[in-house]
From TrEMBL:
<dbReference type="InterPro" id="IPR014346">
    <property type="entry name" value="Prenyl_protease-related"/>
</dbReference>
<dbReference type="Pfam" id="PF02517">
    <property type="entry name" value="Rce1-like"/>
</dbReference>
<feature type="transmembrane region" description="Helical">
    <location>
        <begin position="159"/>
        <end position="188"/>
    </location>
</feature>
<dbReference type="GO" id="GO:0080120">
    <property type="term" value="P:CAAX-box protein maturation"/>
</dbReference>
<keyword id="KW-0812">Transmembrane</keyword>
<protein>
    <recommendedName>
        <fullName>CAAX prenyl protease 2/Lysostaphin resistance protein A-like domain-containing protein</fullName>
    </recommendedName>
</protein>
<feature type="domain" description="CAAX prenyl protease 2/Lysostaphin resistance protein A-like">
    <location>
        <begin position="113"/>
        <end position="207"/>
    </location>
</feature>
<dbReference type="InterPro" id="IPR003675">
    <property type="entry name" value="Rce1/LyrA-like_dom"/>
</dbReference>
<dbReference type="GO" id="GO:0004175">
    <property type="term" value="F:endopeptidase activity"/>
</dbReference>
<feature type="transmembrane region" description="Helical">
    <location>
        <begin position="194"/>
        <end position="213"/>
    </location>
</feature>
<feature type="transmembrane region" description="Helical">
    <location>
        <begin position="115"/>
        <end position="138"/>
    </location>
</feature>
<keyword id="KW-0472">Membrane</keyword>
<keyword id="KW-1133">Transmembrane helix</keyword>
<feature type="transmembrane region" description="Helical">
    <location>
        <begin position="69"/>
        <end position="90"/>
    </location>
</feature>
Length: 221
């Protein structure tokens, strides 16, 4: 593992900035809605802007340039299915932060392009931005500030549990979020390849999207 070159304040940007933009635009959603912006349109803006940031940062994020650990692909697929099963099983009041809200995408007038933007955000943007931040950056940074020089297979238990807890805090289904953080973190520690948890995360979200659309479980979106 090589250290990231550049001034200290700028070194984490490729790992942190996409996630910061993704979360920042989520936080700004109520302001956009008060200004008359349809929340479904705002989600499309959030997806597009974060994708643009990911594209700009791509060359500087060395973890995404490393070839996938191909023998771990089957493990990633299995883990993605496992997290979905846990997510559905833990869709319980006792495992949630407050009452669930119905998604604006449940409205009958939702356009296909709005559904497409929602799915792209869940299957492409969220796995990349969140795995870059929580697993590749935060989990290793908790071991040593020179995080890029930390082999993910050497991450200690404290860092492993903290990243899962912080990942859980981003989700209404907090217990399911913690379980997902443990699974994705374990994949990164076990394989040493960021692409495996990205694959698992993307598959979980794709399967969840299919469940929501076919079962009408809009509170999960």
């Amino acid at each position: 593992m090589a250290s990231v070159v550049g001034p200290p304040w700028a070194r984490p940007l490729p790992w942190v900035l996409p996630f910061a933009v993704f979360v920042g635009l989520l936080a700004a959603a109520p302001l956009a809605q008060r200004a008359g912006v349809d929340p479904r349109d705002w989600y499309a803006v959030r997806t597009g802007v974060t994708l643009l940031v990911l594209a700009v940062m791509w060359r500087r994020c060395v973890d995404l340039h490393r070839a996938p650990y191909w023998r771990g692909v089957a493990l990633g697929v299995a883990a993605g299915g496992l997290v979905l099963a846990l997510w559905l099983a833990l869709d319980q009041d006792w495992a949630s932060l407050g009452a669930p809200q119905v998604s604006p995408f449940a409205a009958d007038d939702t356009a296909r392009w709005q559904f497409a933007a929602r799915i792209a955000g869940a299957v492409i943007v969220a796995p990349l931005a969140e795995e870059l931040f929580f697993r590749s950056f935060l989990m290793r940074w908790l071991v040593r500030p020179d995080f890029a020089a930390v082999d993910p297979r050497a991450v200690d238990r404290r860092a492993f549990l903290i990243q899962a807890a912080l990942f859980a805090s981003m989700h209404q289904l907090i217990v399911a979020g913690f379980a997902a953080g443990l699974v994705y973190g374990w994949l990164y520690r076990h394989t040493g390849s960021l692409w495996i948890p990205v694959l698992a995360h993307a598959l979980t979200n794709a399967l969840l999207a299919a469940w929501v659309l076919t079962q009408g479980a809009w509170h999960l979106w």
